[in-house]
Amino acid sequence: MIAFDQIARIPLVPLLVAQGLGIRRRVNQLPEPPGARAGADGEGPKLRLLIIGDSSAAGVGATSQAKALSGQLVSQLAKTHRVHWRLEAATSATTRVILDHISSLMPQKVDVVVSALGVNDVTRASSLKTWVSRQQQLVDLISESYGAKLMVASGLPPMGDYPQLPQPLRWVLGEQAKRLDKGLADLAATHPILTHLPIDVPFEPHFQAEDGYHPSEEAYALWAELIATHIRENLKG
């Protein structure tokens, strides 16, 4: 069944395109922060970690990778493990871009994969069917070629709550984000290594980067803590 927002957006296409271009010019101004994208840290049982995704995984909004998602997640996990980690992420990446990139690499065995994808699939109007299919291909690749025991897929953010997005673009993107996030959660319920972790970060000014769109360093810290707790709980036993 076609949802109401999918029908309603048709006459709004010219306006939505204009609004989208304006937002894209603004949010792409923040760079990916400098810093290490691979390394080892901590003491304890060995944990091989791969982080994949879009600009949020790449740390846009932070001043360094150490204060971005990867650095803060490694810092959390290093309290209990010897973490061997790698970051493969890029601004504007969709699931297809990351799938193609990961497929092109020489597979290295990992224990856990953390993914942060979906926002660019939403803005590029990926259908639910295409989104779920590509996520299925990604988790199958991670399982079969990388040998991961666990893949943690971060839920899509509530794009309908972004104050920097003008209406009606905010409503259209918000409804699509909800739809894709539910598709991701449904897929996780059927796959043995995939889990869906909703992003439970309050939508408050200090949790937003200066562009009002990407996470701040405080948000990355909270997000990393949630993921680290989720990983420990799912790897028990």
Automatic annotation (TrEMBL):
One of its GO terms (molecular function) is phosphatidylcholine lysophospholipase activity. InterPro entries: Ester_Hydrolysis_Enzymes, SGNH_hydro, SGNH_hydro_sf. It holds the Pfam family Lipase_GDSL_2. Gene3D superfamilies: SGNH hydrolase. Coiled coil: none annotated. It comes from the Bacteria. Residues 52-222 form the SGNH hydrolase-type esterase domain. CDD domains: FeeA_FeeB_like. This is Lysophospholipase L1-like esterase. The lineage of its organism: Bacteria, Pseudomonadati, Pseudomonadota, Alphaproteobacteria, Rhodobacterales.
